[in-house]
Amino acid sequence: MVAGWLMALAPAAWAHSFNVVMVVPDDLAQGLRDDMVAAFLVASEERDGHANEESDGHLGGLDVYITLAAMGDRARIGAAGPDILALPLAGDARSGDAVILRAMDVGSPQATGFLNSAAGVDFAPFADRFADRAGRAPGAEATAAYLAARRIDLAVRQLQSVDDRAKLADLLK
Q1: How confident is the model at residue 121 (pLDDT cuts 50, 70, 90)?
Q2: Distance between CA atoms of 149 and 5, rounded to whole angstroms?
Q3: How far apart are the first and last CA of the chain?
């Protein structure tokens, strides 16, 4: 009886990771794709990291696994089993019950707020950390990917999981 009860609780108790597929335009140059991944990783290293990590980083206090896929590569998108489909640039994609995170205008006041809030006594501004990793200043594509990761971090941190898809979708609007 106890074993059955424990098994019923297992998904919630052990759900400490999630999958994000970052979807990019089919024709995006490889260098820009690399920059987007680097920027996403910068955000995933800001908080909650620990030694001997096996995931790609942390967002919202949970391990995150990141897959990059071109918009037209539906097989790769589906195979990754995404909890969240991040579309930092314009476009559209779907996969099962994955929550969709749409692009944010990198010049908007909301974007500026995210960028300003991501610098503090614990870490340097995003542009500096990106330059340390990539050897150059971030372009619009990298900034868009970073903003997507920060939005995911805040939503997942608030919910402490990705299980409630409706609430997650509402927070990522």
Answers
A1: low
A2: 35
A3: 42
CB distance 151 to 131 below 8 Å = no
Tokens 């097989």 locate to 75
Give the pLDDT band (50/70/90) at residue 106.
Answer: confident
Residue carrying the six token digits 């501004």 = 125
β-bridge pairing 57-59 and 84-86? unpaired
Q: Is the pLDDT of residue 11 over 80?
A: no
Q: What is the pTM of this model?
A: 0.85
- What is the 3 state secondary structure string of the chain? CHHHHHHHHHHHHHCCEEEEEEEECCCCCHHHHHHHHHHHHHHHCCCCCCCCCCCCEEECCEEEEEEEEECCCHHHHHHCCCCEEECCCCCCCCCCCCEEECCCCCCCHHHHHHHHHCCCCCCCCHHHHHHHHHCCCCCHHHHHHHHHHHHHHHHHHHHCCCCCHHHHHHHCC
For the record, the structure tokens of 44 come out as: 């995933």
CA distances from 2 to 5, 60, 72 (A): 5, 31, 47
Task: Look at residue 105 in the predicted model and tell me its pLDDT.
Answer: 86
All domains in the chain, ordered by first residue: 16-171 (3.40.50.2300)
